[in-house]
Known about the structure:
Blueprint lengths: L2 E5 L2 E4 L4 E8 L7 E7 L6 E6 L6 E3 L7 E6 L4 E6 L8 E8 L11 E2 L3 E6 L1
Parallel strand pairs: 2-11
Antiparallel strand pairs: 1-3, 3-8, 4-5, 4-9, 5-6, 7-8, 9-10, 9-11
Amino acid sequence: QVQLVESGGGLVQAGGSLRLSCAASGRTISSYDMGWFRQAPGKEREFVAVSKWSGGDTYYTDSVKGRFTISRDNTKDTVYLQMNSLKPEDTAVYYCAADRFGSRRDRTYLYWGQGTQVTVSS
């Protein structure tokens, strides 16, 4: 079992930055793919970024490339999402997810956090 707790969300003006954190417990994340997803009101949950445990590769959805950075600290069992140049369309609840074999599809993740709200004002 892996428990995930997100933090760092809040209200920010367009162009601003936030850093989300996802703290894991129960098992070390060093052998888990860690993903970030988001869900805006009235929309389906969508992939944002993933950090692969094997090889250390990272992948992003096109709309956040160059603005968001996913990183992990395995010694702290924490994954981060640094979000810069935020736009109103980034407003959503952001979720952290973990799985041994995660991907861009949310159904591939077994463990989920409760989410943290990010609101970007124009």
